[in-house]
């Protein structure tokens, strides 16, 4: 038991340091430097060194108790800053996945719809032109590689807006909405009602992969929160602005990658384990062959919604 407790304690300490202390301590250090130097003396290392020497020469720091108390306060402040970033990251995560019910969100959704339709029209135009110019004998169509590359580039540009016509104000919300729409179109099941039940029967490897993708998305949201914190610090010390921009760019890239993986894993889980769930709730016999039927998916939605 003692080795187990020691191992768990070591892992918890490592997690506490990596997730709470180190990011918060880095931000506190940047804040101390920024407030000391300001915009005018942003690169004055001598000024920073003098401030550190004055602080080190303070009589109170000669006492061991005071030094220990100061170190504890720094750790607490770093932890508090990281906890605040986690709280803000959770809010950002919900904001990214929100529905477009308020006027601003509806306006953003309408703007994204117009942008998506413009790019979709270009894709249709390119495909139509390729069929016209590549028409051969006996109805065969010969499309040049350069034309295919152009169609692929236009398709990727459209998909960067959304995989389907946008229904939410952000790409993240639309990516999850596309997964729900694809599942409903294929199986007739409401993903929001299905997923909590499906999660209970997923095997451990699938659970780990889904959790890992979700953790990546949550970590990106926390990084976006740190980007906001450094942007605020840039009001007093402009070198914090590049750090804010870098954090925001990395957060955006990681959030897209993480959410795209999460959406794909959720859809794959329905494909692989949807029939198993239907059999467990008694809608189909366990030995029934074939894919999950549309009427079975409708029955699952009705059962899981509790006739709401």
Supply database-style keywords.
mainly alpha, 77% helix, 0% strand
List the helices and strands and how they pair.
Blueprint: H1 2-37, H2 45-56, H3 64-96, H4 103-133, H5 145-159, H6 171-187, H7 191-201, H8 204-233, H9 240-280, H10 294-304
Helix pairs in contact: 1-3, 1-8, 3-8, 4-5, 6-9, 6-10, 7-9, 8-9
**Count of DSSP E strands?**
0
Structural class: mainly alpha
Measured between the Cα atoms of the first and last residue, the distance is 49 Å
Shape: extended
Order of helices and strands: HHHHHHHHHH
Low-confidence blocks of residues: 4-10
Give the mean pLDDT: 82
Strand content: under 5%
The rounded Rg comes to: 27 Å
Largest sheet report? none
Question: Would you kindly provide a brief summary of this structure?
Answer:
This protein is mostly helical and 308 residues long. The protein is 77% helix and 0% strand.
């Amino acid at each position: 038991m003692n080795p187990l407790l020691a191992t768990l304690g070591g892992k918890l300490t490592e997690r506490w340091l990596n997730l709470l202390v180190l990011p918060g301590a880095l931000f506190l250090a940047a804040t101390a430097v920024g407030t000391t130097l300001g915009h005018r003396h942003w690169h004055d290392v001598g000024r920073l060194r003098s401030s550190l020497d004055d602080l080190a020469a303070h009589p109170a720091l000669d006492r061991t108790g005071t030094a220990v108390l100061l170190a504890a306060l720094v750790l607490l402040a770093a932890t508090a800053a990281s906890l605040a970033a986690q709280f803000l990251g959770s809010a950002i995560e919900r904001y990214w996945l929100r529905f477009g019910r308020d006027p601003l969100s509806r306006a953003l959704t309408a703007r994204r719809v117009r942008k998506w339709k413009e790019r979709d029209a270009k894709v249709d135009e390119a495909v139509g032109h390729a069929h016209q110019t590549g028409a051969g004998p006996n109805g065969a169509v010969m499309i040049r590689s350069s034309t295919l590359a152009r169609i692929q580039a236009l398709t990727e540009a459209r998909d960067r807006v959304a995989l389907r016509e946008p229904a939410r104000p952000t790409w993240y919300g639309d990516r999850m909405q596309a997964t729900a729409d694809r599942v409903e179109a294929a199986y007739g099941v409401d993903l929001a009602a299905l997923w909590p039940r499906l999660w209970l029967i997923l095997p451990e490897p699938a659970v780990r992969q889904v959790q890992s993708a979700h953790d990546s998305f949550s970590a990106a949201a926390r990084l976006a929160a740190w980007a906001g914190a450094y942007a605020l610090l840039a009001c007093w010390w402009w070198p914090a602005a590049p750090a804010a921009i870098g954090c925001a760019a990395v957060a955006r890239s990681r959030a897209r990658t993480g959410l795209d993986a999460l959406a794909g894993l959720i859809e794959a889980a329905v494909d692989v384990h949807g029939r198993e769930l239907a059999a467990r709730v008694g809608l189909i016999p366990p030995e029934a062959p074939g894919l999950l039927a549309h009427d079975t998916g409708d029955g699952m939605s009705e059962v899981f919604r509790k006739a709401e």
